[in-house]
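Assemble and predict.
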Amino acid sequence: MADLSINFAGIQSPNPFWIGSGPPGNSAHQCHRAFEAGWGGVVWKTIGEAIVNQSSRYSALQLNGQRMVGFNNIELISDRSPEANFKEIREVKDRWPDRVIIASLMVESREQWHEFIKRSEDAGADGIECNFGCPHGMCERGMGSAVGQNPDVIKVIAEWCKEVAEIPVIIKLTPNITDIAQPGRAAAAGGADAISLINTVNSITQVNLDTFCPEPYVDGQSSHGGYCGAAVKPIALNMVERIANDPDINLPVSGIGGINTWRDAAEFIALGSTSVQVCTAVMQKGFRIVADMAEGLSDYMDSKGMKSLEELRGRALPNIQKWENLNLNYARIASIDYEKCIGCNLCHIACEDGAHQCIDLVHPDTLGVDEGPGRLPGKSIPKVRDVDCVGCNLCSVVCPVDDCITMVEIDTGKDRMSWSEYQAAMAAGDMEPIPPHP
Ligand SMILES: Cc1cc2nc3c(=O)[nH]c(=O)nc-3n(C[C@H](O)[C@H](O)[C@H](O)COP(=O)(O)O)c2cc1C
Ligand code: SF4
Ligand code: SF4
């Protein structure tokens, strides 16, 4: 059986699954439940000077009956006192010495950072995570994403932390920035031991068209809040890759954002994460989801003959290139499996109106195919005009039947040539411009 244990910046964890800082990691009671369920670590709900929260504070994007596709919150850091939080960290650490507790911190002055790091260490925390990510409330007070959006300040605070910290310092980044590499490099320059990302994405999920007040509703008003859950996974994967692939950073990464399943976790690890953190999925489904995640990841690794997570970590990184390095002479086209096609013709509409007008509707007899599942006899069915298909993928992602439209590689008979090679060949006078599409 594959070994799921990890070493994250010197912190040993029995598996890569950590609870991300937020409501599920707000008390000893919850941490005990998380560890009983099998989580390897908990990043405690951010500790700082106790705050006062709003009621209400959450809203969600519900899409076609699916709940919490995206989740939004305007809550602040822990509303419990630092004393209560550090006391309970000690209690949890004493009971679960083999599990990881990271103290997430957000304070203002250098003295406070030093004090809270010392208190985290005294409580037995394995590391601290600097929350430079909250995009609401705390940033208005000069903390959270206000720090995460300013690389110079990130570097200074990382240095303050490293002046005293005897445990690893993890910098948690905000995605609310144009180039995530900049704060990542600042964290590295400040001496941070690791980076975690992403915190939540600034958002408004919906507007009530009767009251004209967005959610979450607070006495007739609302505020922008942090977006997370499944909807943010693509944003998070992209940013994790940017950090993990940057030679100027070269730090362990804890990947966060929309992780619900072992597959999500495996994708984050393949893009360079050592640990992964989960918040929204636990709020929706409870701590128990970790059992499926651990089993699924372990089975997957066994099926690939991987003995440790080191064999998976970063495996996808070399395959992410600048666009200019991709092969211009590669081609694939859509291929329809008429055994599966239900004749909905959504592919035809998508290609006709949104792509390259190369899916015709023809009588099934002209293709010599039998009636398919649910297709009306004699009803026209889609046929791809191979020569005109540009291989954009639109029809295959629109098709409601799994594996009904697959994209098939075709031999163009041309050698590999990237955009940059094409430009170099043109500059050298070695080739004519490729004619534009008619
Ligand atoms: C209700 C809520 C409260 C959160 N509070 C914190 C917090 O106190 N500190 C922090 O660093 N991140 C906080 N987060 C952000 C999460 O740790 C995580 O970065 C983000 O939600 C993306 O992961 P997810 O999609 O698994 O939720 C919070 C998220 C939610 C949903
Ligand atoms: S979208 Fe898929 S199922 Fe519908 S007609 Fe096209 S190929 Fe058939
Ligand atoms: S891949 Fe794109 S161009 Fe080709 S048939 Fe599908 S939608 Fe049309």
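The chain is about 30% helix and 20% strand.
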